Amino acid sequence: RNIQQKGSYDRWKEYCGELRKNKVVRLAFAASFASVLIERVNALPFVFHVWSGESGTGKTVAIMAAMSIWGNPKMGGLVKTMNTTKVNIMRTSAFLYSLPYAGDELQTMKDKWSTNFDQLIYQITEGIDRGRGKASGGVEETRTWKNSYLFTGEEPITKQNSRAGSKNRVIEIEAEGKLIEDGNATVGFLTENYGHAGKELIEYLQKTATKDLQAQYREYYDEMCHLDTTEKQAMAMACILLAD
């Protein structure tokens, strides 16, 4: 119901072109676009997390803008509340498969994950659900996915006591100052104009050889590996750069 086109693509491009002048918003757009590249370039699912201890920075609206690439970015549409269960997250991830999973206000599920989100990060970025048995006997089909995750929150998703493995799978950014000036107007615009860019990207990818995409990705990946980072973070950032 939410993956569809509405409104004007030209107006969307003009409006979102202005939003993308903010570097954090631009990264959010690229992380959203990157989701459909992950399987093509043999990368791993990753988390892009925008956080701020202050309200009113526009981080939720930034994620909504990034999801307007694919369809209706309303809350409850392509942007989900994180007041949910891990089973729901896994099953939604498998349903989306290569489309990005957008979750707002990560701290609303903090009590389910004890002191940090390491377990959540590991489980979603592995791209495979755990085996489950059926009440009637036998086992359910194992679900898999190859997508990116766009989260917002009031605090970082990793902590000082987080394991290196979870930090490697995350690109997180603190929003300092406003990301989007007029949040209400932006939400109003985005819920009337959406879904065109994702369709165009998919049409482009269908005409593009996988080896060409992988060669471009490898160039970015090699550049990232020369910096002070890890292979998994280089993988995520190379996907984001290629998507941008």
Q: What are the salient characteristics of this protein?
A:
244 residues, 5 strands, alpha/beta, single chain
Provide a descriptive summary of the structure in words.
The chain has a 5-stranded parallel sheet, sandwiched between helices. Strand 2, helix 4 (86-96) and strand 3 form a beta-alpha-beta unit. By secondary structure, it is of the alpha/beta class. The protein contains 10 helices and 5 strands, in the order H-H-E-H-E-H-E-H-E-H-E-H-H-H-H.
Short note summarizing the structure:
The chain has helices at residues 9-19, 23-34, 59-67, 86-96, 118-126, 164-168, 183-190, 196-206, 210-225, 231-243; strands spanning 46-51, 79-81, 101-104, 148-153, 170-174. The chain has 244 residues and is of the alpha/beta class.
Which spans have pLDDT < 50 for at least 5 consecutive residues? none
Q: What radius of gyration results from the CA coordinates?
A: 18 Å
Query: Can you count the helices?
Result: 10
Shape: globular
Average pLDDT for all residues: 92
Order of H and E elements: HHEHEHEHEHEHHHH
- Strand order, largest beta sheet: 2-3-4-1-5
The count of strands amounts to 5
How far apart are the first and last residues' alpha carbons, in Å? 27 Å
Sketch the major β-sheet: 5 strands, parallel
Question: Per DSSP, what share of the residues sits in E-state strands of 2 or more residues?
Answer: 5-15%
